[in-house]
Specification:
alpha+beta, Rossmann fold, seven-stranded mixed sheet, 19 helices, 24 strands, 42% helix, rod-shaped
């Protein structure tokens, strides 16, 4: 069955085995010798664990040197059974789960057969007991039961009695001798006490063959790969369930790690860290209104004070500038929310549905804080945005006012001659929007407000008609640009300055926010990168440590017939289960997480959109965990992990 021909193996230039040859048949076979004689090295070669040696070693005519990973996996699951001096059981699994381990690579797990084997070995009452609570003799019987579940042709035992007392050692050897009646049993030992005249003995001394069986095997049995050998997805999940049940602490830490890493990544995706400057601007909007983003473009003004309401200590100066063509330049600019003409009207009378309404003059330039209904006028028709105060006098809602037609008449100051002359003008227009016309201003540290109730904003077509009626030839119409963002406001202001135009607005106040925003973006970019990297590093570190702590577990799987492909599938089902658990925990714990992120970043991290963004992020970090554990699996050296002896 086994043929060893001129086998030699060296370690650091010293022979562990030196040109040995012999054959092993069925029955009880002992490999004996003092420590360091080469017993364990020979066992590794016979089992195919060691394939780097000189000479040849055959099992049933098949060279163990030429065993592929797939063939070796099949051998370990169906042909070779291993019994170790350290038992090499999964300590946190039950006795029955350990015994069933090789069966996960088959279509059906024969639980009944496992129970029968446990009964034969007189440990059936320990089936549900965790292995770590058993005595040494009981563990050795569990190890034997696990290998018998393979129904192997060969049992290879490495010092199976060295960790047992004399009585338990004898029981173990009696079991192995009983097994040898139907199988090949090879026992590596330094204790010759249990050898009888019916056993075959291979004796080694310093790598040299001293004695070997006298009977030479001249015929070999052929091998047939007639059993299915794969790990199904169903069995992978079943094994994962068993592993989680026994190692729930490790599973909990892994799932929690994925959730924490996913939440950390979510803070970078959500921009939570970079929202501080926007938060500050929002506070200013609450104080000063949407008009904070306004840029007033006027043909002339007197620089009597700062735009923040504070008097400037410098001489007053009249400014006159040509603003012609600027409206056309900015009306379709993507940075602009809307443009409103700042035409003032006096003695306003509005007629709607045959009823006339007089609008008192406030003496202030028209102001629009924000639209509360509808839209701004277009340039294609006579359209107007009216103040919400006017709508209130109509006794209808803002939405009901949209689409109503009004007849507007007023007086307009004509300054073409250098002196103000009131001129009549009227027009019929359609209401397309309703505006909040509240003005906010600061005086002596206090913010006050009032409403400019005579603020009517016409489309350019309508306003041109009104100005013609007022005989106004100057086409420089004052207007206000509402920028979309603070950065857009400063950008447009800078452009106007470069063109020699002095606009009006609360630029100093907004520039502070824009500058803060630029700094915050830079800082938050670095912080986001650090947090993103940290979250991945945490996952890699924990799963790498956990993976390499499991190398002995992976090695036990491998000598039970699992190959890297099978362990890869098991790794996948474990990570999938952890990922689903992490997502569920995140969803359940989201209110508590919101409390934390509210305190740290002043935002609710888990609103409806971001909550579900966290799901793929957890899945992504789980991918990193999967590949990290895969590294540990691929780097598991079975011999080293199982500590099968020095030589």
């Amino acid at each position: 069955m086994f043929e060893i021909k001129n086998v030699s193996k060296q370690y650091n230039g010293e022979f562990a085995l030196n040109n040995i040859s012999f054959s092993i048949a069925k029955g009880m076979n002992f490999i004996v010798g003092a420590s360091g004689s080469g017993k364990t090295t020979l066992l590794k070669i016979i089992s195919g664990m060691e394939q780097d040696f000189d000479g040849e070693a055959y099992y049933c005519g098949k060279s163990v040197k030429q065993l592929t990973p797939s063939e070796k996996s099949y051998y370990y699951n169906n042909i070779f059974g291993f019994i170790w001096q350290d038992f090499n059981l999964l300590e946190d699994l039950s006795v029955l789960d350990n015994v069933l381990l090789p069966q996960y690579l088959k279509n059906n797990q024969s639980r009944k057969n496992a129970e029968s084997i446990l009964k034969d070995l007189k440990i059936s009452d320990l089936a549900q007991q965790k292995v770590k609570y058993l005595s040494g003799g009981q563990k050795q019987r569990v190890a034997i039961a696990r290998e018998l579940m393979k129904n192997p042709r060969v049992i290879i035992a490495d010092e199976p009695t060295s960790a047992l007392d004399e009585k338990t050692a004898k029981v173990t050897m009696d079991i192995l001798k009983a097994i040898s009646k139907k199988r090949t049993v090879i026992v590596v030992t330094h204790n010759t006490h249990f050898i009888d005249h019916t056993s075959n003995v291979i004796s080694l001394d310093k790598g040299e063959l001293v004695t070997s069986p006298q009977e030479v095997v001249t015929t070999t049995e052929s091998l047939k790969y007639d059993q299915r050998h794969s790990l199904s997805v169903k069995n992978a999940f079943a094994l994962t369930k068993s592993t989680i049940r026994s190692k729930w602490g490790r599973f909990g830490v892994s799932a929690l790690t994925l959730m924490v890493a996913g939440v950390l990544c979510l803070t970078t995706v959500s921009g939570a860290i970079g929202d501080s400057s926007q938060g500050e601007f929002d506070k200013l909007i609450d104080t000063y209104g949407e008009g904070l983003k306004d840029i007033s473009v006027v043909g002339s003004f007197m620089s009597a004070g700062g735009t923040d309401g504070k008097q400037e200590e410098k001489p007053n100066a009249n400014v006159t500038q040509n603003i012609g063509g600027l409206y056309a330049k900015y009306v379709d600019d993507k940075r602009v929310d809307f443009i409103a003409f700042s035409q003032a009207f006096n003695d306003i009378k509005v007629t709607m549905n045959g009823k006339e309404f007089s609008i008192p003059s406030t003496g202030s330039a028209p102001v629009i804080n924000k639209l509360v209904a509808g839209k701004m006028p277009t340039d294609k028709a006579n359209e107007v945005v009216v103040p919400d105060g006017f709508v209130q006098t109509l006794g209808i809602s803002n939405e009901q006012a949209i689409g109503k037609e009004i007849h507007f008449s007023s007086k307009i100051y004509n300054w073409d001659t250098g002196e103000p002359v009131l001129k009549d003008a009227s027009i019929t227009a359609t209401i397309v929007g309703v505006a909040d016309t509240t003005v906010y201003y600061e005086y002596e540290g206090k913010v006050s407000e009032y409403s400019v109730t005579d603020s009517f904003f016409f489309s350019k077509v309508a306003l041109d008609d009104l100005r013609r009626q007022a005989e106004m030839k100057n086409e420089n119409i004052n207007f206000t640009i509402r920028a979309k963002t603070p950065a857009d406001m400063i950008s447009i202001k800078d452009e106007l300055n470069e063109a020699g135009i002095v606009p009006l607005g609360r630029f100093e106040l907004v520039e502070d926010i824009v500058r803060l925003n630029a700094q915050t973006i830079e800082q938050s970019g670095s912080a986001n990168a650090i947090i993103g990297i940290l979250s991945v590093v945490i996952v890699i570190a924990i799963f790498l440590i956990t993976g390499f702590m499991r190398t002995r577990e992976f090695a036990i799987y491998k000598v039970s017939g699992f190959r890297n492909l099978h362990l890869g599938l098991l790794n996948l089902t474990e990570r999938m289960t952890e990922t689903v658990t992490a997502i569920l925990v995140m969803l359940i714990a989201s209110p508590l997480i919101n409390v934390a992120t509210k305190g740290l970043f002043s935002i609710n991290l888990f609103h409806s959109n971001l909550l579900f963004t966290g799901v793929p992020l957890i899945a992504l970090v789980a991918v990193a965990a999967y590949f990290t554990t895969t590294i540990a699996i691929l780097n598991t050296h079975t011999i080293k992990a199982l500590k099968t002896g020095d030589r």
